[in-house]
Design goal:
heterodimer; A: about 290 residues; mainly alpha; 12 helices; about 75% helix; B: about 375 residues; ABC transporter involved in vitamin B12 uptake, BtuC; 2 domains; two-stranded antiparallel ribbon
């Protein structure tokens, strides 16, 4: 029983990390119906970007997150303005194919620079310490930090969407880009902000993922699939739905890994397919 | 000769007729390769089998995405299932390896038909990634079947019973035949009711459905059909390579290559995959010594094409010079003055009738109208102007 509780708590905390992966994907799909196939590869890019200050300037990985977030926001904004906006239109294929191309460029570019060696960040004692909750249940300090950060960022993002001018512009463009345009909201800029925001959030996830386990240039696709599954399990139109989806995915993977080595990822996929079969609109869908 | 207007819808132009004969000639050459000097070597045929496999896969991807608007990132699932089915039937059940190839294709189609209800719960971008998840599930499942070699895979040892040169010629001929049949089938299908429904579905699912296109069954058909093709590709490729592993068979690069070939060549055109495959293999040959640079350049070329020439190289050629080698729709509408049910003077009479009846309507409208007469008369003026 205690062991089961432990597994679920670990899965829950892992879900926090997946939420950081997924919220960005949820935003880009919500605002501009873009499924960014390169999402996972940009996540890995963020981790590699953090690698430089961490190794050369001996910066603490937590501190390195800040410049990487800023950099990734700028990258997302620029990519949308320079590349993706040219392809946006009634046809969803073109922007998706463009991100597919970017994904291959990034993966092989990183491979060229960093080769296939797996890297990881060392954060000293925090990475190993854990808090005992009585019995055999212990919660690692670092996973807890990740979970709390994920909650805070999800909360902040939903505040951004509901209470700020940018958020209103994002929602208006999402509902009807043309009408929003008549009100003076430029879709091109709004889309750029959405992708920037998505990249900023995945930058946090990327660095945290690099601290939690290792990463290689090939880690991207797996992260994309986890993010995607979390979004679909959670359902459209709600950031907290995505968060809950990520937590469910994390728990499914945790339980799966307990059942058999190498079964964790498959269990996550199967839960995703089950949700698709029985509740294709997601568990926490909120119609707008 | 009676006067009048008529038109003839033609799908063939001088160029397209020439292209058909060129295609027939190319097919003959492709099939004759094993007996040709210089080309009939084992090394060339092995390379050609690979090219053919990528070309067929690209055609299948194009059928789904370019015509049906269904972008799949999970086509490697069916390449893998085709490859593994070949191993199951040929290696484990003792079926003739060459006979196992079509069986493997059918198995892939079957797997597609069974999983279709699940993946078609998603649309657009979700469908794309959803098929990828499915491919991952298959990959993990096959890596856990120890009878098939688990994660490290296994070799097709039954093929050693067949003499090497016979084997290589046979597999080349099977690949070439499959390519020709697939190209012909796709071209004929797209010219039929099926093709029209498919393009309607791509342009607007709702509109297609409102016009009586059975969207669900059409999607299922195109998905199953292209999976059959992908399964055949897997079976042919692994009969040639003789060794399979889950990571290679369910590799994302299968679909990456198919996508890039189609996007660069020209999405939604029959000729596109051929042009794209030529560019793809030319680039691979040029960049053979630079490892990952090859994929990097392919990705960059694809992104540039999507940005600046969204219809691909062939699409650009087609609009620039108005050439269509394998036209699918009626394109050459030529007006001729031949026999026509309405004669010239009758047209004049009909036009007069129409004018007078519209004037009648206008008069009645004026009589009923609550508005000042001058307003309505201005409306009448406008009408006369038309």
């Amino acid at each position: 029983m205690l062991e089961a509780t432990d597994t679920i708590i670990q899965g829950l905390l892992l879900g926090g990390l997946y939420a950081l992966f997924a919220i960005g994907l949820s935003i880009t799909y919500g605002v501009m119906r873009l499924v960014n196939i390169a999402h996972g590869d940009f996540l890995v890019l963020a981790a590699y970007l953090a690698l430089w200050p961490v190794t050369n300037l001996e910066m603490h990985p937590f501190v390195a997150i800040l410049p990487v977030v800023v950099l990734m926001f700028c990258l997302g904004y620029t990519l949308q303005r320079v590349v993706l906006n040219r392809t946006m239109g009634p046809n969803f294929l073109a922007p998706m194919l463009a991100t597919f191309g970017m994904s291959i460029i990034l993966r092989n570019g990183l491979q060229q620079i960093y080769h296939s060696d797996s890297r990881s960040f060392d954060i000293g004692a925090v990475g190993a310490d854990s808090i005992h909750l009585g019995g055999t249940i212990a919660v690692g300090e670092f996973p807890l930090i990740v979970f709390v950060v994920a909650v805070i960022l999800t909360f902040a993002t939903s505040l951004l969407f509901s209470n700020t001018r940018i958020g209103i512009a994002l929602r208006a463009t999402s509902d009807d880009a043309e009408t929003a345009g008549l009100m003076g909201i430029r879709a091109n800029r709004t889309y750029a902000i959405a992708l920037g925001l998505s990249f900023a959030l995945l930058a946090v996830g990327g660095v945290f993922a690099g601290i939690r386990t290792t990463f290689t240039p090939e880690s991207g696709p797996a992260s994309l699939l986890y993010a995607f599954e979390a979004v679909v399990i959670g359902g459209m139109g709600s950031l907290w739905g995505t968060f809950a989806g990520a937590v469910i995915l994390g728990i499914a993977q945790g339980v799966g890994a307990k059942l058999g080595a190498g079964f964790g990822v498959l269990a996550g996929h199967l839960v995703f397919l089950a949700v698709l079969a029985f509740k294709p609109t997601g568990l926490f869908e909120r119609s707008r | 000769m009676r006067e009048g207007l008529s038109y003839v819808v033609s799908r063939n132009t001088a160029i397209s007729n020439a292209a058909v004969w060129l295609g027939v000639a190319a097919a003959v050459v492709v099939v004759a390769v094993p007996w040709l000097p210089y080309l009939g070597t084992a090394a060339f045929m092995r390379w050609a089998v690979e090219v053919i496999c990528y070309l067929i896969l690209a055609q299948m991807w194009n059928l789904m995405a370019g015509y049906g608007g269904l972008m799949s990132v999970g086509m490697q699932a069916f390449v893998g299932i085709g490859g593994y089915s070949l191993f199951v039937f040929a290696q484990h059940l003792g079926v003739n390896p060459f006979l196992s190839i079509p069986i493997a294709g059918v198995m892939a189609a079957l797997a597609a038909a069974i999983t279709a209800p699940l993946v078609f719960r998603m649309r657009g971008g979700y469908f794309a990634i959803g098929t990828w998840v499915l491919a991952e599930v298959f990959r993990i499942a096959f890596s856990n079947i120890s009878a098939l070699g688990g994660g490290s895979g296994q070799s097709l040892t039954v093929m050693t019973r067949i003499d090497r040169s016979t084997r290589e010629t046979a597999i080349y001929l099977i690949a070439a035949t499959t390519l020709i049949v697939a190209s012909l089938a796709i071209n004929l299908l797209l010219r039929s009711r099926f093709g029209l429904g498919l393009t309607a579905l791509r342009d607007s699912e709702a509109a297609a459905e409102s016009q009586g296109v059975d969207v669900r069954s059409l999607k299922l058909q195109v998905y199953t059909l292209s999976s059959l093709g992908a399964g055949l590709v897997g079976a042919i490729y692994y009969t040639s390579v003789l060794r399979i592993s889950p990571f290679a068979a369910f590799d994302l690069n299968w679909v990456v290559a198919a996508t890039f070939i189609v996007v660069i060549g020209g999405i939604g055109t029959v000729e596109g995959p051929i042009v794209g495959a030529a560019i793809f293999f030319a680039l691979r040959w040029l960049l053979a010594d630079y490892g990952t640079w090859y994929w990097l350049v392919m990705g960059a070329v694809a992104v540039i094409v999507i940005m600046f020439a969204p219809t691909g190289v062939w699409g650009y050629v087609r609009t620039r010079w108005d050439i269509q080698l394998l036209p699918l729709r009626g394109l050459d509408v030529s007006y001729e003055t031949v026999s026509c049910p309405i004669k010239g003077h009758e047209i004049d009479r009909l036009y007069d009738q129409l004018r007078s009846s519209s004037k009648k309507i206008l008069r009645r409208y004026r009589a009923l109208s609550p508005w000042p007469r001058c307003w309505v008369s201005s409306l009448g003026k406008h009408q006369d102007g038309v």
